Amino acid sequence: MPSEGLSKAYRPEEHEGRIWQRWIDADAFHADPHRVLAGEAEPYCILIPPPNVTAALHLGHALNNTLQDVLARAHRMMGFETLWMPGTDHAGIATQTVVDKRLQAAGEPSIAQLRQVDGGRERFIEKVQAFKDEYEARITDQLKAMGCSCDWKRQRFTMDPVCARAVREAFFRLFRAGLIERGKRLVNWDPVSQTALADDEVEMKEVDGAFYYMRYPLVHPSQNANDPKDAQEVTWSELAAKGYPGAHEMPEDEPAWVTVATTRPETYLGDTAVAVNPKDPRARALAGLKVQLPIVGRIIPIIEDEYVVLPLRYPWETEEQADMRRDEAEPIDPKALMATGFLKVTPAHDPNDWEIGRRHRLDVINVMAPDASISDAHGWNAASRGEEGHIFFGKSREEARELVVKEFKARQLLEQVKPHRHSVGHSYRSHAMIEPYLSDQWYVKVTDDRLRGEAQRALRVEQRSEESLRAWPESRPEEEQQSSKAAKQQIRNKTSESGSSGLPSADLPCAGLRSGDACMSFYPSRYAKTYEMWHDNLRDWCISRQLWWGHRIPVWSAASNAEDTRATLDRMGLDWPKDNELIFEQADDRGNVYMVTRVVFDANSRESRSFCCIAPGRAEIEAEVERLGFEQDPDVLDTWFSSALWPLSTLGWPDAKAAAADTGIADFDALLEAFNPTSVLCTAREIITLWVSRMVMFNRFFRGNIGGMGLSPVADGAGDAHGPDARATAGPVPFKDVFIHAMIQDGEGRKMSKSLGNGVDPLDIIHTHGADAMRFTLVQMTTQTQDVRMPVERDEKTGRNTSPKFDIGRNFCNKLWNAARFALSNLPADPPPRGQGPAMVEAAAIDPASLPLADRWMLSRLAEATEQATSAIAGYQFNVYAQSMYDLLWRDFCDWYLEAIKPTVKTNPAQQACLRAVLDAILRLLHPIAPFISEAIHEKVSEVSLPPITGLGLAPARKSVLATAGWPRVDAHLRDLAAVEQFERMRTLVNSIREVRAQHQVQPKRIVTLHADAALLTQIGTVCGLVETLAGVAMSDGSPDGASAAFAFEQREYRLSNLADAIDTRAERDRLSRELDALDKSIFALEKRLQNPGYTEKAPAHLVQQTRDELTQKQRDREALVAALETVH
Prior knowledge:
Mean pLDDT: 88
Distance between the termini: 54 Å
Helix content: 40-55%
Low-confidence stretches: 476-514, 707-727, 832-843
Strand content: 15-25%
Number of strands: 36
CATH topology of the largest domain: Rossmann fold
Shape: globular
Radius of gyration: 38 Å
């Protein structure tokens, strides 16, 4: 037995810390990009989705990172130069919110209070930095405790100097390319965090609300349109005279109105029109009339717009008339059920109304403050609010709604209220209801073809829809298209010619492609549709956030009055620009552009504002523009801007030398070339839009060679951004594969998340079960189709969360440990002789054909499992990989192989060599999913030197640890089909005997007698005591003298005697009858299937034949059982 052996029981806490230190000391996880560039190894790279520094990790993160670690460890063992890049995300809005709450809880000044004092921003940033350091360290410790084999020397943070430089450079290039602009638009506003949000940061939630039906009085236009006192009411008789349907049924001399339906009565304060569909029969009669808003008195126009939904039934119609009017072929619009045909238009507080307002050039009146309270300080002037508008000042949205309803009701202008459940946008961080809010913000023009188009073209052709291919064709020169087709054919050929080992080809999936087109695949493929649909409906990305924690927007601005503006234009010899904008670039003596200035002119006031974007590393220019009176924008960038650069910034872009100087890591200069594109991104489905799409856009844009600076020809004043020239230099995709994994849910089916506070700390599970048990359980439970529900229990003694589901993993680890103890106890303890090298060992290699049946069967099963595991990992079928390892270790190695060789292994050196080789290979296959225990056992296995098995390649470790050892390589001849067939026959026989023993409750050590014919006894004799050992039987060629039990094997009846002192014939008949009933049900089901033409005519022929063969087999088994029943008296 190897020195000291293994302890009786596996205790994870005794090994995990020690093993981790061994890996670190061996530098096992460090990737060398120069090996890739020198052609010594193929690259394999994963970038960790950087966890937010807002809180500790939960089991969802444990799953995500375990899957990545499985891939990283497996490919490292397969010989790839593997880089798994770790890091964390600053998570602007989320971190700022958490820290602000923490400050308030501690009685320290909140961010609202700090905004009122000098130096408040700096004081707050210090607090956030300390919080970040605390949780970054905690997250790192959690990842290491899980066994994550990241290249920890390269750990990045999205606001560290390396990443910050990338952010500044990216912003500068996009600004210069005309892809970043500032504009006043309606944004998604979080009134709690008081910042803008992008569309994909808004979560839609169902809420219980109501439709309020409010009457707006009609009035005649007057000479003084802005004076509500001059308004003259319109009567129903006037409307009747104009042909207004249903007006003649109303009191003639009473004021007429139109009824609007809204879920947000409080926004009526900002209404600037009422819209009607031109197809509405009432529209013509309303031409030239206006509406007077109650309470505030403002007079607004009635406009016609086809966006307005026609009501399902007009007030004057019967149901029969409405049905006759409606086209039965068209589906009913759900909105029509609630619609009145009149739409209140509030451009400042509804995105659809904003678009209507733009079409009709309506006024925009913002009636809310940033906290969503009603205010006159943000665009609601005295002229538009009337004499009574002040009653709403300072009220929250909800309070204002109640007051509006109360006032309308008091004036008999509230027609009715209908309960209505509808979907409302909420902030993904504060969970507050989003307020559409008019604000000046910065935007990335992601709708530009250079971004959106390239993102769509990046998707592998097989996963693109016909609509997408038409909208965004590849449009490459014929020569390049031919190159792409040839590369795809080459990939198909290599896939079909994969070696007997089942290892993935080292050739990159995108080999031969000149760009990143048609190179990215989603797993499962259904998520490609999610990716496509997002781009189909894309709007420009709002990237500015009204926060303190984040990357400050690198733009300085200053305003000029009309006189200075005119003087500047005269000095430059320029006329007033037609598009109210001028762009200037300033460069140094070497031609490097260091500042881009965009001057925006106001045609009405004749004033202007200059926006200067300064390249990174130009502190002297920043100081100079500030001396001239320019101020830096106070806002910060959306967190996802820096996250979108993750595949670039972590690898040293744009300045590898500066990154090396910042970090002391010398090989930054080779990282980008060696590892971008990366191999795979493992992430969750909810950030396909937030993150995946933007990484594709940025990687293709910045790694392209457009104008030498990531610029399109349009930015230089020539060419067409949508033409082929603008596309010819698009860069590669950031990753070749995107694997979308299942979500971990709590016991109630909710996603585990930091914001919900329902996450379980992985360290709790590691404490109770060990890291490997947690990893194995998570991977085994994860499929590509279903989320994983993980109910947990709190241990009152320790205060930690745990779950009995992780017992699966713990039991598996214990099984492995005990199997290894048995194997090692049967292997020689002597170390190899001095001077014995690999050549000597290789010369003594053992031919599998010379081994006993059990060994040949085990080697064949090992070969099959190796191919299954390799294929499953390559296809991201992690649960299949885990299950194949479970079956290999538990069912094959432990239950059958070890039991079969127990009587002979001590005295058979060749069998010892086979046992050692199989155990070594199993440990290597298991290492990606259970790294700690496999490494601990392999320490002992590696002390045993025995001849290798021909056809089983077990390359030694490059860095003295299993983590760097070779993945098993199996030759085709190791698959001994004859041995498998023979062993499986004997295993079926053993299982039949064991079943009878169990039913008769025979003691495990009792030897029973098998009565068989000469043919079966001869077959049993050829397997060298296998059946006797595994079934606990002695053989007899005669009939039993006394009581016996019958069983069927291969359509023959055999008997077992000596089961006990006497056979309970009644129990035996019951047992055989139950078996017969089960067979009858199975036969009936098979016959029904074969009688179904839909199956026999449409199913594959080989499946139909399998069904027929199965039916024949079961019919013969039934005959044997019937014969056995007849002998039991």
